[in-house]
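Exercise 7b. Backbone tokens:
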């Protein structure tokens, strides 16, 4: 049987032997290893360990699946024959094969194309050896996802489905050259032509300017400063950086430190060549100050406000005359914050952009032999993922808790947890959820401006350790649902669940909604200071319907189990949350989604919130309007399909084809709403079943996730968790007639 994810061809540096890769996803982490020959650079030269025990293992199904290799023993499975429960059952039977030995699911959390350049540039400038198999597979990945459009669209975009941009094309062209790909390689000629048609790297957005400046192929005078001195301001100020959104402040801390140091790589022949390849004029003739606000029109999603440009003008003057004692104090403060973030997260940091920047900071300050730099180097592997296309960098060190929580809930809600053959799998899930809960606050959580974490569940791993509101909620829901299955051991105590409730109850904002990592700390007018031209809504936290729904449903499930604990607080917070959900419904009946694509996703969550207030299709105008919206988007084949362009435009945009994930969300929304006509639900389920492969899996379709409106990101495990949940619930709640 052909693989659902066939491997694309080699890249400009060839391809590695796929049978030599091993995915080690034990102990929460996902780390890829390559079984090398004796003549290859030894692992211990790069990482300090050769991981011999992993290399001696046989490839497992998890490794083979993500590499796009055929799995053994699945050819004999038959189609579900129109029974949604059987389809869900077969889907989970396949998905169990991808479950890690420790109970969770790993996955390819890729998509954005501005992440990989940071770590490659960081390794290059810190003289960290890049393993040969990484070079080969990164080059293969970029070759396989290179745009194949017209002459002006043969580079890379901000993410894998976006059109070519200076940000994507310029940075990934640099990656390939640093890996050893020749400038005259045909794919490089096409990419360079695209880059030059877009105006060259003088028009790259500010984050791209930063990385090119670090590499010494762009001048620091060509960037607007984000000086570390901002951290010396009084904390009560409404624009103090500790009030910024947590990802933004964790990027601009090391960015301010490195730009304040004026650090740049040493000039060598490759850098001299790149200086000529990346621009449409000679490097020596570029007027760098004029580049500060020059951003290619294709890249420009969030233009600077007049307020931001005025502030940049002031900061540019200050930067030229900054007193050395003030600058040194600011750099010391920024570096201390970098160090605290490293310790708090086990050197993972909050994400891959800050990871790469912090790594350079520690190398520059403490040297390559320091314990801190060695720790950073060791954790690079947690962000690198081998797919059928090649090697990429993931959006965090994984999405382990998030994916595991959703499949946990799916098998309970679908009834699959009661199947004898699934009990061992469910037991391992619960054991992993037990280990994943964060049991204490990080060492420097107050000094580093962190929200409390005791009792929370993270997005990825306990080691990375950030509280996320909806991850805590979904993790707690999964635990309670699994522990309510007869015969299941009670691994997570009431006390620990109360700790999770305490965290959730610490996070509602004044509007009644929940944000992502912490409370809203600053006014939304801070977005007028947004310096990153490619993202929106990045300067402060916002409340989200999806996060709000997760939290209020978790509180509801907990209250049914333990009605005596903080009942008045739960009622108060839940009532305000439902009011917030109502306030965010759009005129067409939908809700805008900020973390996945898009209206389909958020509308499913919002309807779930309203159902807790006993609002359904028969008694709620809001729910009826939401159902009408969803039904107006159902496609002729019975499915739903939404494009990532919905996130950019904030208007519903149909995908070229229906998508099983969007369809599952719509089906679940209609079921939760108690929509009286079963036919649209049946049609959606039939579409999902028609896409199921003989082995029980589903093929990967369009990209599923998003952040900051303009950056799409992959959640390939969604095509299992949500389809299984939708089919199972439909089978339980609808008549079997007509399937």
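Sequence design result:
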């Amino acid at each position: 049987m052909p693989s659902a994810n066939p491997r694309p061809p080699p890249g400009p540096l060839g391809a590695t032997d796929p049978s030599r890769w091993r995915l080690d996803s034990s102990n929460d982490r996902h780390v890829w290893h390559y079984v090398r020959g004796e003549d290859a650079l030894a692992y211990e030269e790069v990482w300090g360990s050769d991981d011999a025990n992993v290399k001696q293992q046989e490839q497992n199904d998890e490794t083979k699946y993500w590499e796009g290799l055929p799995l053994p023993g699945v050819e004999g499975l038959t189609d579900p024959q129109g029974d949604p429960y059987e389809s869900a059952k077969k889907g989970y039977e396949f998905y169990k094969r991808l479950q890690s030995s420790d109970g969770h699911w790993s996955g390819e959390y890729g998509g954005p194309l501005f992440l990989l350049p940071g770590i490659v540039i960081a390794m290059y400038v810190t003289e960290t050896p890049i393993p040969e198999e990484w070079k080969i597979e990164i080059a293969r990945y970029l070759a396989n996802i290179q745009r194949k459009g017209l002459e002006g669209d043969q580079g890379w975009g901000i993410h894998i489905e976006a059109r070519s941009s200076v940000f994507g094309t310029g940075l990934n062209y640099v990656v390939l050259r640093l890996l050893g790909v020749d400038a005259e390689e045909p794919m490089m000629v096409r990419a360079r032509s695209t880059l030059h048609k877009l105006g060259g790297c003088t028009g790259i957005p500010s984050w791209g300017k930063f990385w090119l400046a670090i590499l010494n192929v762009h001048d620091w005078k060509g960037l607007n400063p984000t000086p570390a001195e901002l951290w010396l301001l009084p904390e009560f100020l409404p624009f103090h950086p500790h009030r910024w959104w947590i990802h933004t402040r964790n990027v601009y801390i090391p960015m301010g430190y490195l730009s304040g140091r004026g650090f740049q790589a040493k000039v060598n022949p490759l850098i001299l060549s790149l200086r000529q390849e990346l621009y449409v004029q000679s490097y020596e003739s570029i007027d760098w100050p004029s580049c500060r606000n020059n951003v290619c029109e294709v890249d420009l999603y969030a233009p600077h406000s007049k307020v931001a440009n005025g502030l940049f003008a002031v900061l540019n003057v200050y930067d030229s005359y900054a007193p050395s004692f003030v600058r040194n104090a600011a750099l010391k403060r920024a570096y201390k914050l970098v160090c605290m973030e490293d310790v708090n997260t086990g050197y993972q940091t909050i994400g891959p952009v800050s990871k790469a920047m912090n790594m350079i900071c520690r190398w520059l300050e403490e040297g390559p032999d320091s314990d801190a730099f060695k720790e950073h180097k060791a954790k690079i592997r947690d962000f690198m993922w081998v797919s059928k296309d090649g090697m990429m960098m993931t959006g965090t060190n994984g999405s382990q808790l998030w994916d595991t929580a959703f499949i946990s809930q799916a098998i309970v809600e679908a009834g699959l947890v009661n199947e004898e053959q699934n009990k061992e799998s469910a037991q391992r899930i619960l054991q992993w959820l037990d280990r994943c809960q964060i049991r204490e606050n990080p060492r420097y959580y107050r000094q580093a401006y962190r929200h409390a974490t005791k009792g929370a569940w993270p997005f990825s791993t306990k080691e990375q350790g950030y509280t996320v509101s909806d991850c805590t909620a979904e993790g707690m829901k999964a635990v309670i649902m699994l522990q309510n299955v007869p015969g299941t051991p009670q691994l997570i105590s009431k006390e620990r669940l109360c700790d999770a409730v305490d965290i959730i109850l610490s996070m509602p904002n004044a509007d009644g909604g929940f944000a992502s990592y912490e409370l809203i700390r600053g006014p939304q007018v801070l977005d007028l200071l947004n310096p990153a031209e490619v993202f929106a809504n990045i300067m402060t936290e916002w409340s989200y319907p999806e996060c709000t729904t997760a939290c209020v449903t978790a509180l509801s499930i907990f209250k049914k189990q333990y009605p005596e604990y903080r009942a008045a607080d739960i009622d108060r917070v839940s009532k305000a949350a439902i009011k917030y959900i109502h306030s965010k419904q759009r005129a067409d009946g939908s809700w805008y989604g900020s973390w996945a694509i898009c209206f389909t996703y958020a509308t499913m969550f919002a309807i779930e919130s309203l159902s807790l207030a006993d609002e359904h299709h028969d008694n709620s105008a809001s729910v009826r309007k939401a159902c009408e919206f969803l039904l107006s988007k159902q496609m002729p084949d019975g499915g739903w399909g939404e494009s990532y362009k919905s996130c950019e435009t904030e208007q519903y945009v149909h995908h070229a084809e229906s998508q099983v994930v969007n369809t599952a969300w719509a089906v679940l929304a209609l079921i939760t709403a108690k929509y009286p006509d079963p036919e649209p639900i049946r049609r959606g389920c039939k579409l999902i079943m028609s896409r199921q492969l003989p082995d029980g899996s589903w093929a990967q379709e369009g990209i599923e996730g998003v952040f900051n409106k303009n950056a799409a990101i992959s959640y390939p495990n969604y095509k299992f968790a949500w389809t299984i949940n939708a089919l199972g619930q439909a089978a339980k709640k609808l008549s079997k007639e007509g399937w």
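Instructor comment: Confidence is low (pLDDT under 50) at residues 39-44. The domain at 82-109+589-738 is CATH 1.50.10.20 (Glycosyltransferase).
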